[in-house]
Amino acid sequence: MFKAVLKTFFLLIILFVMLYVGMNNTKEIDFNFPIAGTTAKEPIHASAALIFFGVFAAGVLAGTMLHSGGGGGSKKSSSKEK
């Protein structure tokens, strides 16, 4: 129970930091990421806070997918052999 409360608390801290960054970065910027190829010719022109949120969301999704994993082969049999 305490572990869930602690994780929720840290998530709220991260969300507060995102809100703070969004409140203080309202100017529009050009986002260049030439490795992806889509922004090599024409950069994305959007609010700095929106771009920050997009990059953060992509990182959270990637981390969640890596953390959850497949784990299909780790099932154990409940019956004991004699």
Radius of gyration: 20 Å
Number of helices: 2
Mean pLDDT: 78
Q: Separation of termini?
A: 38 Å
Q: How can the largest sheet be summarized? A: 2 strands, antiparallel
- Provide the structure class: mainly alpha
What is the strand arrangement across the widest sheet?
1-2
Please state roughly what percent of the residues sit in beta strands, choosing from under 5%, 5-15%, 15-25%, 25-35%, 35-45% or over 45%. 5-15%
Helix-residue proportion:
40-55%
How many beta-strand segments? 2
Shape: flat
Runs in which pLDDT lies below 50 for 5 or more consecutive residues are none
Question: Could you state the order of secondary-structure elements as H and E?
Answer: HEEH
Outline the structure in words.
The mean pLDDT is 78. Strands 1-2 form a two-stranded antiparallel sheet. By secondary structure, the chain is mainly alpha-helical. The chain is 54% helix and 10% strand. It is built from 2 helices and 2 strands, in the order αββα.
List the helices and strands and how they pair.
Blueprint: H1 2-24, E1 28-31, E2 44-47, H2 48-68
Antiparallel strand pairs: 1-2
Question: Which structural traits does this protein have?
Answer:
82 residues, mainly alpha, 2 helices
Concise summary:
By secondary structure, this protein is mostly helical. It has helices at 2-24, 48-68, and strands at residues 28-31, 44-47.
